[in-house]
Amino acid sequence: MISDLKLLELFVRAARLGAIGKAGAEFGLSPTSATQRIQALESEVGAQLLHRTTRSVSVTLEGERLLKHAERIFETVQDAMLDVSGENQVLRGTLRLAGPASFGRKYIAPFVTEFLSMHPGLTVQLHLSDTVFDIVDNGFDCAIRLGALESSSLKAQKLSSCPRILVAAPDYLKAMGTPQTPQDLVHFDCVIRDALQNWRFKGPHGEEDAVKVAGRFVTNLAEGVTEAAISGFGIARKCTWEVAEHLESGELVTVLDRYSVAPEWNIHFMRPPGGIEPLRVRQFRSFIKQKMAQVPALGQ
Asked: Which PROSITE patterns match (predicted)?
């Protein structure tokens, strides 16, 4: 356990400045005294934290690990001070946000830029990817996730529902016919994402059904599924927000309207467990929930 947080603070500044002497000067220390304190910290943690040369310093692998935790500690302290001082504080610092790629491009990124325009003292780092990763280990403040909520230590708040439907091009259905039950899908081409061929449904009376579908077009890209369906390559399973404009234009029509796609999907705001929710996170969570309530293609 580190007995003096001032040593930790000095290490963070030395790592960021790339010079122990410059960091020491910020604390009123001579270069020699600053170096001795960094050495004391290294002795306390039992690892070399900085590589030293005559001109600069660089962070070791162990130092990078400590640096990530240390910065989070000081951010938490700052967040606690802001929380105590009230809601009317100007938002500052960096909001680190993760989200899914397609949904992020269509909705999250525009919402983020609007939020930034309201808070000129704030910076946002937005990472969009369909890969689900540990936001705590990767230093993110929060994430927006689509799908069925899995067991997790993260705190979750539902932002909206995310209905899924089956769609196809009218010309495809005119040529091939229209399925009446999920089991009929075995006689149709389906457009498949990521080889997810086992499709589940809930019937009008709550009965569950499942079918293994097949098709000539398989892709890892959500937009690719939509384009293939529009081009007449089969029936696709899509979120309503992905295809709303194509349904309105008539490029796509819904299929199996009496059945709902299972499991039910929702959109959740996720944040690390415990601790104080930073003011920037709390205000962004409230903002984006309000914005999503205004999107017609999303349920509530």
From this structure: HTH_LYSR (PS50931)
Full DSSP string of 8-30: HHHHHHHHHHT-HHHHHHHTT--
On whether residue 89 sits in a domain, the answer given is no
Instruction: In whole angstroms, give the CA distance from residue 206 to residue 143.
Output: 32
What's the mean pLDDT in 167-178? 97
CA 177/CA 259 separation, integer angstroms? 18
Lowest mean pLDDT among 43-47, 103-107, 226-230: 43-47
Which pTM does this prediction carry?
0.71
- Token digits of residue 191: 């457009």
**What is residue 58's predicted lDDT score, i.e. its pLDDT?**
86
Is 258 in the same domain as 171? yes
104-113's contacts with Cβ under 8 Å and 24+ in sequence apart are 104/128, 104/144, 106/241, 107/241, 107/291, 107/292, 107/295, 108/144, 108/288, 111/287, 111/288, 111/291
Residue 195 lies in a domain: yes
- Secondary structure of the chain: what % helix, strand, coil (to 5)? 40, 25, 35
**Which structural domain, as residue segments, surrounds residue 50?**
5-84
Q: Return the CATH number at 41.
A: 1.10.10.10
Specify which residues 239 forms β-bridges with. Answer: 164
Least confident of 33-37, 55-59, 118-122, 172-176: 55-59
Q: Of 102-111, 120-129, 265-274, where does mean pLDDT reach its minimum? A: 265-274
